[in-house]
Amino acid sequence: MKEEYRAIIVGIRLDDDISYSMDELEGLAEADGIEVLGRVIQALEKPNTATLIGKGKVQELAEMCSAMEADTIVFNEELSGVQMRNLEEATGARIIDRTVLILDIFADRATSVEGKLQVELAQLQYRLPRLTGFGKALSRLGGGIGTRGPGEKKLETDRRHIARRIDDIKAELRKAGLNRQIQRAGRDKSRLPVAALVGYTNSGKSAIMNSLLSMTERDDKLVKSEDMLFATLDTKHRKIAVEQGCEFILIDTVGFVSKLPHGLVEAFKSTLEEVKDADLLIHTVDSSYENRDFQIEVTNKVIDELGAGGKRKIMAYNKMDLADERPLDVSGHEAVYISARTGENMDHLLSAIKEALFGDRKRARLRIPYDKGAVTSYLCENGEITAIEYQPEGTMLEGSFDPGDYQKYRKFEINGEE
């Protein structure tokens, strides 16, 4: 059972408004089981190298912790080991930053072996450069936030052990990455196109996947969908059949968040490679959220970092049943306005996906000789067949075919009215 913490959250305002970022920090804290008692924001020209915030604010924080019986202070900015140590000594509270918080949530949510390894790698890479300033404090903390890995496993505090463990994890992840490449190669061989759900955490990606599965009578393949941050860490794959000959793989990916730790993006890069390899991105947006434009911007930034910025995209404005107004889309991509919860316009989304993945199919009439039965079976399975006729010279198939399949078998095409 996780310990309960009572915290004050702290942010610095250098030039722009940080109220949204602080609201998000509070949401992250609550997602990690922390009770937020209050917040402190200090406007600064530049951060204090010793304590991030000014000396007077540090004293104010110490007094607030005493008066409110807060045992934890959560900073919106990433802290150095020295800053953590100085702040802990001055306030007597457990000091964590946004990165530690996100990593702790990921550690709690990870379920697969690979997911747990990826999170532990990010945690150890974050911890290693902070041992000099915060090493003693880490050992004093005992358990809890900032010290536990996936499965409540206690993280290493010894530099040599950490370095060795990082090398071991990287080796294990390389093996896992190789296995994923083999799986992807198998999917490539089947020639099924791939659509990837991407977007901010809690925007409803898993709910959209489940709605599409239900629409196509695949209720036995539903994925876990919860109204919580980072409910999905491990990539999920499901086959969706729009109709005969129009099948695709739908991928549900980990959600993004602002200031997503770079080490976490790096650790999950092998998993997120699937976004780069997808034929179509379905960018999911929470239409009911006031700062959705910022969330769209953050998601686009991560997509660009993954090298998938030029992919074909559908903007899926989800949760329209909770939205006060229809969001204005300025992305330049096709936009659909849906509710995965109520099913509103989900048929429009499915049609948009079909058009994006199968719209360039070639309509043709092919007559396959009877001694080429394997070709007939393949085309019936992978093409959108509208008519079959058994003629003296062979099996006539009329329908729409993948451009690659059409080029391969166009020698069997029938021209004219025969």
UniProtKB/TrEMBL annotation:
Binding residue positions for GTP: 199-206, 230-234, 252-255, 318-321, 339-341
CDD domains listed in its UniProt record: HflX
Protein's cellular compartments: Cytoplasm
Cofactor(s) the protein needs: Mg(2+)
Domain Hflx-type G residue range list: 193-361
Keywords assigned by UniProt, alphabetized: Cytoplasm, GTP-binding, Magnesium, Metal-binding, Nucleotide-binding
Coiled-coil parts of chain: none
Gene Ontology terms, MF aspect: GTP binding; GTPase activity; metal ion binding; ribosome binding
Chief location category: cytoplasm
InterPro entries in UniProt: G_HFLX_dom, GTP-bd, GTP-bd_M, GTPase_HflX, GTPase_HflX_N, GTPase_HflX_N_sf, P-loop_NTPase
Positions bound to Mg(2+): 206, 232
Superkingdom field: Bacteria
One Gene Ontology term, aspect cellular component: cytoplasm
Free-text function comment from the UniProt entry: GTPase that associates with the 50S ribosomal subunit and may have a role during protein synthesis or ribosome biogenesis.
UniProt record similarity statement: Belongs to the TRAFAC class OBG-HflX-like GTPase superfamily. HflX GTPase family.
Quaternary structure, from the entry: Monomer. Associates with the 50S ribosomal subunit.
The protein, known as: GTPase HflX
The species this protein was found in: Candidatus Allocopromorpha excrementipullorum
